[in-house]
Amino acid sequence: MLKRIRVEDVRLGMYIHGFVGSWLDHPFWRNRFLLEDPEDLARIRASAVREVWIDVSRGADVPPEAPVAEAVEAADEAEPLRAYDERVQRLLQPVSQSEELQRAARLLASARGAVKDMFQDARMGRAIDRQVMRAVAEDIADSVTRNAGALISLARVKTADEYTYMHSVAVCALMVALARQLGLPDEEVRAAGFAGLLHDVGKADIPLEILNKPGRLTEGEFAIVREHPRKGWQRLRAAGIEDEAALEVCLHHHERMDGGGYPDGLKGEALTLLARMGAVCDVYDAITSNRPYKAGWDPAESLKRMASWKGHFDERIFQAFVRSLGIYPVGSLVRLSNQRLAVVVEQNPGNLLKPVVKTVLSLRSGERLVPERIDLAAPSCRVGIEQREDPAQWKIPDLDEIWSGIPGLGRQSAPA
């Protein structure tokens, strides 16, 4: 028997079956566990969650006089509870990037913790909690729906030592944005995001000394890495995850259109739409992120290089991916026709060649500028972008801070 009760009535010895509300409202990444630790009880009562589900067949019951909001028979443990799946009313109306950035930063912090715990538990042989991962993916999808540029841009700015966890979060967001650009139905958009979040779970089977190696891998080490898609697929199946999208992206996100990928060497029409999408999103985040062995490439430069890799990606999907990010993605450093350097802060969907930028430096004087926001698509604007610039050559330490407005962002992200 499952009972929905107030947090005030939760006691040690109860079996927590689920939290009522958003996963962001409670401090645990698991949802089902025997409550034995007084500190865990205190954390539940201090959280924003006001009700929980308990399973009285697996733990203590409430006293007869305690109020019970709802009671149901736990006939099918595989089906998520209706009340457990209740979510705070989603605010899906489009918002500006500046409005979404702060909310996205909080979401990324929580998602990073959840994914890190998932990987650590996987290494210890524990099962993946698919309900928590689905909730994380849903919140990421909501953020991307409100404003695609905010969370995607923040997720790119990650430290080298947190790459494995944040890469999963970033690919989730990129998959959602790409699926929306392709015009997929909402259900498929969210399935794509869930697949992106879980696509690299097989890396839990790679020894950490290989996963975090700062130099080139040996042939033997790379052979171990090449097994992670199949290992991940096996982990998802073992966790009872039968979502076709999640399984397909996990197994085949390293395949190539020309058959040169792994683990199965599939090519062309043998690759599903989701696998082709996963390949693009996975590579883009990998090459724009700081890794233990190299600094990430500039977003605009990364798209330029990816476009030159013939036979790697589905061209139609790659073109849609570029449209979803912009020709000059947020964070790109560009040279303006008035001889100033500027960083891209937001896209103009109606004109990808003319994003919104903030000025950074005068090329004439070589002096830093007080950042000025310029909408290059505005009718009164008389300047445009002349070319991309390599941030590494200009060594502007607060570039990410300028476009995001978040103090200190990116200062510690580059590998030493």
Q: Compute the number of strand runs.
A: 10
Tally of discrete structural domains = 3
Query: What is the gyration radius calculated from CA atoms?
Result: 23 Å
Tell me the strand percentage band.
5-15%
Outline type: globular
- And the CATH topology of the largest domain? Hypothetical protein af1432
In terms of quaternary structure, the protein is single chain
Cα end-to-end separation: 55 Å
| Helical content (DSSP H or I, runs of 4+) | 40-55%
User: Which regions are unreliable across 5 or more consecutive residues at pLDDT < 50?
Assistant: 75-91
Main features:
416 residues, alpha+beta, Hypothetical protein af1432, five-stranded antiparallel beta sheet, 10 strands, hydrolase, cyclic-guanylate-specific phosphodiesterase activity, HDIG_dom, HD_GYP_dom
Walk me through the structure.
The structure is a single chain. Helix 2 crosses helix 5 and helix 3 packs across helix 6. It contains 15 helices and ten strands. It has 416 residues and is an alpha+beta fold. The protein folds into three domains: 71 residues, no CATH class; 229 residues, Hypothetical protein af1432, CATH 1.10.3210; 72 residues, no CATH class. It has a five-stranded antiparallel beta sheet with strand order 3-2-4-1-5, with no helix packed on it. It has a five-stranded antiparallel beta sheet with strand order 9-8-7-6-10. 42% of the residues are buried. This is Cyclic di-GMP phosphodiesterase response regulator RpfG. It comes from Tepidimonas sediminis.
